[in-house]
């Protein structure tokens, strides 16, 4: 069976079954980050790895500094999705031997810019030869207070579902320049009990079902409410992916306060209630748009 | 300027200059692992990333379980080189969509086998599409007691230089099945003041000068003393690389005791004194064999 016939979620499920996992691991494969720490630790450690590949995540003629920014910010976005603080990055780079030093320097300029902006130390990595496309993998470690760590799986039936920003059209515009929502996520976990959270990377149509499934819930979604980037259709907003906005669930009693203070704190970034988690049942309100599958 | 014309060390030097680095980082880019921790912490954290690429580190028809073993054990070997204990691994995998699930399952079987053998938890990772060769990047976190952490840079003039095992011929034989020297390294740092250490991955001819340079020393090396794998020439033992043995420096006064107890503790693994660190000077005893350069 080829991976392309199986689809990404099935491949990941097949591979992450029965992985060796010690008792110090609170959350292993399957969430935005892995979480290391015990029930008495004040701080938990977050671990994440994420790769961008020439021809998949960026085009060969793209400015290397934008590629570097994106490579690090994708991983930072996953730390944000757990409510965490990014700390230490390692960069694995594989490029053709005929690559120009200027290209690699440009890449590192983008990596450094993102690192400085979000307080990340670039502590090492590896440079190797690639016989094919350029490959940049970022490993990022961070931390989060145990009491503030948010997973995908804590949502409950009746929770309201919110998304930040506007969705869709990212590949044509901002996907190389997006801002990971570290500030917003930290503010959220410091002021509210966020029950479940993730970042929207494969499109809401893929990611909301993942959050609901991890929380053992179904969901409702009103596609008309989904905040769209200018010029985008509902289909694009649901399916394009690479938005790197926050998708989260919160108790209905917190909604009024959240919406009021959010507007004051982040006046430029929309926060939109798009649906709800509901009791798991077979009669799910479904939509027909699909998000990004890495092997499709 | 192309990377192939510069050589690996110059590329790494150009890229690692002026990286953002916080005060909690004891050792950034340039050693076997990055080290996070302060002068009062009992344990320091080790971070490492390492990649294997189809067509560079393994052939397309290689058994996937052996590739998985190698991918994780390379990073474990770097943790050993610091005297540390490997703990948590993240796997980044990029493969062609037409890759068979059986291949990826085999790869994970090898990863799991190595993880169990060395007490590593595989806590997550990422699976993506590659338009070219298969790419497996391992990010590994570990820990080491602050007082036992060994870098490349602590060597002093007159220190004796040792290497474990036998060198050379790895690509034809063991490079996919090697045993990272975790047990030996832990024993060394628990019983001796190891001044500088690294693992031999690019060949002694590349790696010994790196250790000496990091320690601001020159070195002597008697090529005739270098322990060779069966059937290997001195040139192969010095230049082949992928040995994943330990190379370390220790005070001369500790040598007699080290050699005596090593033989009892690890009777099957040779330990050989191959040279010494000497005062930095221009009159270095040099040899004409070169190790592996990733861009040459």
Tell me the quaternary state: homodimer
Overall structural domain count of chain A = 2
Please tell me what the overall shape of chain A is.
globular
N→C terminal distance of chain A:
14 Å
Largest interface: A-B, 76 and 76 residues
* Overall pLDDT confidence of chain A: 91
Structural class of chain A: alpha+beta
CATH architecture of the largest domain in chain A: 2-Layer Sandwich
Write the element-wise H/E pattern of chain A from the N-terminal end onward: HHEEEHEHEEEHEHEHEHE
Range of strand content of chain A: 25-35%
Count of distinct strands of chain A: 11
**What's the level 1 CATH class of the largest domain in chain A?**
Alpha Beta
Main β-sheet, spatial strand arrangement of chain A: 1-2-3-6-4-5
Report on this structure.
- Chain A is an alpha+beta fold.
- Chain A folds into 2 domains: 3-147, 60s Ribosomal Protein L30, Chain: A (2-Layer Sandwich), CATH 3.30.1330; 150-279, PurM-like C-terminal domain (Phosphoribosyl-aminoimidazole Synthetase, Chain A, domain 2, Alpha-Beta Complex), CATH 3.90.650.10.
- In chain A, 29% of the residues lie in helices and 27% in strands.
- The first copy, chain A, has 8 helices and 11 strands.
- Chain A has helices at residues 3-6, 8-16, 64-81, 101-117, 182-191, 204-214, 234-239, 255-265, and strands spanning 25-27, 34-36, 43-53, 85-95, 121-129, 135-145, 160-164, 194-200, 217-221, 245-250, 271-279.
- The first copy, chain A, has a 6-stranded mixed beta sheet. A 5-stranded antiparallel beta sheet of chain A has the order 8-10-7-11-9, with helices on both faces.
- In chain A, a hairpin with a 6-residue loop joins strand 1 (25-27) and strand 2.
- The first copy, chain A, is globular.
- The two termini of chain A are 14 Å apart.
- Chains A and B meet through helix 1, helix 2, strand 3, strand 4 and helix 4 of A and helix 1, helix 2, strand 3, strand 4 and helix 4 of B.
